[in-house]
């Protein structure tokens, strides 16, 4: 049984989540349900949960304030939030589970399964990365990205990524000054995730960071010369989109 604490300043929401967990997630043992930040802080320290469901909006504080007071965080967290899409990007970059209100049963079950798997594998929490990204919401490029690999997660600065390269169902991520990382996510996942961070699909196999393009060489599709002098082919059908994206970034 996974020791679990629920934190939500709305009793109705707390009761609804508790009922759903009892019905669909029998592997969880709810050891406390808190509506006050002070009580949540005390119970978390005393009961040492393995999993915490944390509402973002708490009376007088936020869930992030509570986490900052509890650091280092040595338990898994599933956030419950009504935040807008802009803030949700920070969760996605940090590979942190979150559920939007009203909570969907299937999404709840899947989030719990992932959390239980991480607990069984003793994976480290990504809370520090999430808190960093939330402080950088004004600049998507300054955020950090959690890259899932076979050994766990690598945390990297997005601005240091040169390009992402398809490798079957995986993705090789190439950097300025460090070895490449093989991610267990596919290239299409990174295309969606990094769309607002200045990355553009140049080819079926390549997603390129616009800030690292040093030169565009004309051709049927053309070629991109990157800041490390590597060359990336541009497919003919993506040529116009690449040039348009470069004009928006560099204002020429």
CATH topology of the largest domain: Rossmann fold
Assess the beta-strand content as a share of residues.
Answer: 25-35%
User: Total strand count, please?
Assistant: 17
CATH superfamily of the largest domain: Response regulator
User: Strand order across the biggest sheet?
Assistant: 2-1-3-6-7
Shape: elongated
Arithmetic mean pLDDT: 90
As residue ranges, the low-confidence spans are none
Q: What is the level 1 CATH name of the largest domain?
A: Alpha Beta
Series of secondary-structure elements, N-terminal to C-terminal: EHEHEEEHEHEHHEEEEEHEEEEEH
The end-to-end distance, rounded to whole angstroms, is 60 Å
What would you say this structure looks like, in words?
- It contains eight helices and 17 strands.
- By secondary structure, it is α/β, with parallel strands linked by helices.
- The protein has two domains: 2-134, Response regulator (Rossmann fold, 3-Layer(aba) Sandwich), CATH 3.40.50.2300; 140-250, OB fold (Dihydrolipoamide Acetyltransferase, E2P).
- The strands form five sheets. It has a five-stranded parallel β-sheet, with helices on both faces.
- The longest helix is centred in the middle third of the chain and has 16 residues, at 105-120.
- The radius of gyration is 21 Å and the shape is elongated.
């Amino acid at each position: 049984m996974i020791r679990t604490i629920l934190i939500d300043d709305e009793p109705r929401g707390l009761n609804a989540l508790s009922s759903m967990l009892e019905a669909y997630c029998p592997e969880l043992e709810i050891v406390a349900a808190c509506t006050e930040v002070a009580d949540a802080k005390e119970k978390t320290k005393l009961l040492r949960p393995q999993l915490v469901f944390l509402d973002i909006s708490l009376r007088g504080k936020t869930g992030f304030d509570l986490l900052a007071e509890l650091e280092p965080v040595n338990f898994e967290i599933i956030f419950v939030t009504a935040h807008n899409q802009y803030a949700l990007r920070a969760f996605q970059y940090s590979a942190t589970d979150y559920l939007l209100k009203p909570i969907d049963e299937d999404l709840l079950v899947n989030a719990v399964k992932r959390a239980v798997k991480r607990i069984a594998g003793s994976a480290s929490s990504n809370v520090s990365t999430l808190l960093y990204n939330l402080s950088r919401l004004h600049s998507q490029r300054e955020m950090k990205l959690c890259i899932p690999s076979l050994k766990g997660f690598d945390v990297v600065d997005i601005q240091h990524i040169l390009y992402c390269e398809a490798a079957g169902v995986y993705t090789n991520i190439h950097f300025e000054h460090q070895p490449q990382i093989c991610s267990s996510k596919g290239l299409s996942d990174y295309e969606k995730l990094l769309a607002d961070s200045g990355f553009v699909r140049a080819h079926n196999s390549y997603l390129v960071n616009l800030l690292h393009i040093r030169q565009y060489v004309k051709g049927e599709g053309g070629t991109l010369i990157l800041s490390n002098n590597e060359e990336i082919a541009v497919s003919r059908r993506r040529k116009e989109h690449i040039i348009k994206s470069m004009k928006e970034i560099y204002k020429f």
